[in-house]
Amino acid sequence: MKKVSLICALFSLLLVVACSVQIEDKAVEVSSDNKNQEIVKFDRPDASILKGVKIPADKLYFYTSGLVADLINPDAAVGKYERYGDTYQQSISILKKIQATLKEGGFDLEDVFFLRVYLAPNKEGIVDWDAWFKAYGEYFNNEDNPNKVARSTIAVYALANPDLLIEIEAVAAK
């Protein structure tokens, strides 16, 4: 009876070791298939943004927080455009800030693959989509930076500061 128990125990040990080796070998094979794959962009030639982006597992990522415009004139009254600017001015301010933040992390605008944009209505109650689209076109999908990104642009009731009309998050990979 002891021989049978000993044989079963040895057989179980061999089975566990064999399975471990197969799992490790499989893991090496899977990860080696993902090495040096390119980022794939699913384009829409008729649009200024992409349908989607596929990022391979071996790429580095960089995320910004939701960034807002810099204060232009601290002496301007709250609620006046002179304080932070209109939607276009705020968009440009944020895109410059995104560019600088990316640079700190060793990334460029060319590495951005996704933007999430929150637009709030101005004091007249209008969400100025065109101002944002114009600013976007000055930083993406142009001659200097042909990079298109996947993007969500969302109208919101308000941002945390009533003087702010836009907030942008960026995600980059390389």
UniProtKB/TrEMBL annotation:
Family annotation (InterPro entries): RutC-like_sf, YjgF/YER057c/UK114
Protein keywords: Signal
Keyword Signal attached: yes
Signal peptide extent: 1-23
Transmembrane segments: none
PROSITE patterns on file: PROKAR_LIPOPROTEIN
Tagged with keyword Signal: yes
Gene3D superfamilies the record matches: RutC-like (3.30.1330.40)
Record CDD domains: YjgF_YER057c_UK114_like_3
PANTHER family assigned to the protein according to its UniProt record, in alphabetical order: 2-IMINOBUTANOATE/2-IMINOPROPANOATE DEAMINASE RIDA, ENDORIBONUCLEASE
Protein name according to UniProt: RidA family protein
